[in-house]
Design brief:
This protein is mainly α and 233 residues long. 76% of the residues lie in helices and 4% in strands.
Length: 233
């Protein structure tokens, strides 16, 4: 078995390990990401606050209307009690009662408007709460699926690491050191397969000498362009 093949096999395992680690990192990030839930919760809290504010405004409007009606009752009671005889005073009382009634109409309109605002606020709160529940349900479902995937990936990770250990044990220390150094410099790809006399990693066409050297099992040959280890097979 050629040294280049052993290194190529190690590269295949490491590439799979890189994919597994990358996906595990993605899963961990997604599991830790609660932005959607937090935003939905903020909307619920905002809608709830607006509902409470609207309810308070309605209660105030109701109190104002009730207070105004009491004033009208008192004014009319005085007007029709017969105790006031002076025409000027009677006229003043009449004008006051009419003014109180006109203002009551304004207060009742405000009360109606406050009721409508509260209705809208309650609808918005219910919609926000429903959306929050739906998002939480979706996120929980997603997280359950991610946890299952994570479990399978960890199983695969254990297997791949065992295979890597076995593969690395068959490579001499100098070649392994060179391989690891290249991996760190070349975005994780230290060994490139030769396809139709071309380095598959960088796309360069190999010279006749380089191609011939790469076919010798006992030699480690590097691409003239990207310096990766070449494997012909």
């Amino acid at each position: 078995m050629s040294q280049s093949f052993k290194l190529f096999r190690l590269q295949q395992i490491d590439s799979e390990l890189d994919k597994i680690y990358s996906r595990l990192n993605e899963i961990e990030a997604k599991l830790a990401d609660d932005l959607q839930i937090r935003l939905a919760q903020e909307k619920v809290e905002d809608a709830h606050q607006k509902q409470n504010d609207a309810a308070l405004q309605l209660r105030r409007a109701e109190v104002d209307v009730q207070s105004q009606r009491s004033k009208i009752e008192q004014s009319e009671a005085t007007l029709y009690s017969g105790k006031v005889k002076n025409p000027k005073e009677l006229q003043d009382l009449q004008n006051e009662a009419e003014a109180l009634k006109r203002y009551l109409t304004i207060l009742e309109d405000r009360q109606l408007e406050a009721m409508l605002v509260l209705d809208d606020a309650e609808e918005n709160y219910q919609a926000a709460a429903k959306s929050h529940s739906s998002i939480v349900e979706d996120i929980n479902l997603q997280n359950n699926q991610l946890l299952k995937e994570k479990e399978l990936l960890n199983q695969d990770l254990t297997r791949q690491e065992s295979e890597r250990q076995a593969a690395a044990s068959n490579i001499n220390a100098n070649d392994l050191e060179s391989y690891n150094a290249l991996r760190s410099k070349k975005s994780g790809v230290a060994v490139s397969r030769v396809v139709e006399r071309t380095c598959s990693a960088c796309g360069s066409t190999l010279s006749a000498a380089t191609y011939g050297s790469a076919q010798i099992p006992s030699k480690i040959t590097h691409c003239d362009t990207c310096r990766r280890i070449l494997y012909v097979g």
